[in-house]
Design goal:
rod-shaped, 0% strand, mainly alpha, 85 residues
């Protein structure tokens, strides 16, 4: 004899299987668009995170960092050679 399914069970099995497989496939995506929109209080990125490469703000941020490094090096006093003992 065996287990008998009504016809409605097979009809509902396909959408449920598609939903489960679709969710699993979507979780494998490497895009950071959803993670970027999570608020900081919910475990998202803090507000002071620098922009990612490829974003419009990235080039300006990179230039600002490079310019700051040049200014910091210019402001440091010159190193004096160690006198022999």
């Amino acid at each position: 004899m065996g287990v008998q399914f009504c016809e409605g069970a097979y009809v509902m099995l396909h959408p449920i299987a598609l939903l489960v497989l679709g969710t699993a496939l979507a979780s494998c995506s490497g895009s950071g668009t959803i993670a970027d929109r999570v608020p900081a209080w919910a475990g998202g990125l803090p507000k002071d995170v620098p922009p990612r490469p490829g974003m419009p703000e990235y080039d300006a941020h990179k230039e600002r960092l490079e310019g700051r490094g040049k200014v910091d090096a210019a402001q440091q006093p010159a190193k004096k050679p160690n006198a022999p003992n």
